[in-house]
Design goal:
Helix content is 27%, strand content 27%. The chain has helices at 18-31, 60-68, 105-122, 185-189, 195-210, and strands spanning 7-15, 39-44, 48-51, 72-75, 83-85, 89-95, 135-137, 140-150, 153-161, 181-182, 213-217. Strand 7 and strand 8 (140-150) form a beta hairpin.
Length: 231
Amino acid sequence: MQGGRPTVEVVRLGLVSYQEALRLQQVYVNRHRSGPAHALLLCQHPPVYTTGIRHKPYPAPLLDRLRLLGADVHRTNRGGLITFHGPGQLVCYPILHLGSFKKSVRWYVSELEETIISVCSRFGIDASTSPHTGVWVGDNKICAVGIHCGRYVTSHGLALNCNTDMSWFGHIVPCGILGKGVTSLSAELQRDVCVEETVPLLLDAFKDRFHCRLTDGQTDKTERDGGGSSA
């Protein structure tokens, strides 16, 4: 990290469509054009399947079948393969200029994973990384990580399963990894762990791992004309 502790604005978007979250990420990415303007966007999404740049286009019949389940489907410019986002999943989009931290994408992804491992540890869950991206509890993925980085400005991020309806994952091979499963904080602890309970632990862990200061922020109406209810 360069110099003192960077300041990162925490923006709580609540429940917001995936398309609106993409638009808002671009708003915050553009802020970096006039200097560092680090932000941490926190949200939940209505049911949506997203594909990354590491996969050839999915067959149209498969995508149609996913849409028939009641979910949206989006192709993105993040790394990784197909995954699911939905209510009960804490989605975190850090919009950071790595010049204020360390100009290394590999370091950045590792720090995101270590942040979630720390969150899990605070819940008493023994999580770890694996040769596959993301955070795992045994052979079950508890958090997906898929990022984009352009000119050292990051977007996309991570999705931590809190009390997600896990049946949505049964219709895909999550992140394209055969023979592996998915899990959640609630499944591991055998009690309901909601997003609201998890957010403070995530913020503490992020602050520790990235050696930054966090401030509360709020999107204004010109940025958030698509809107979404608080989560």
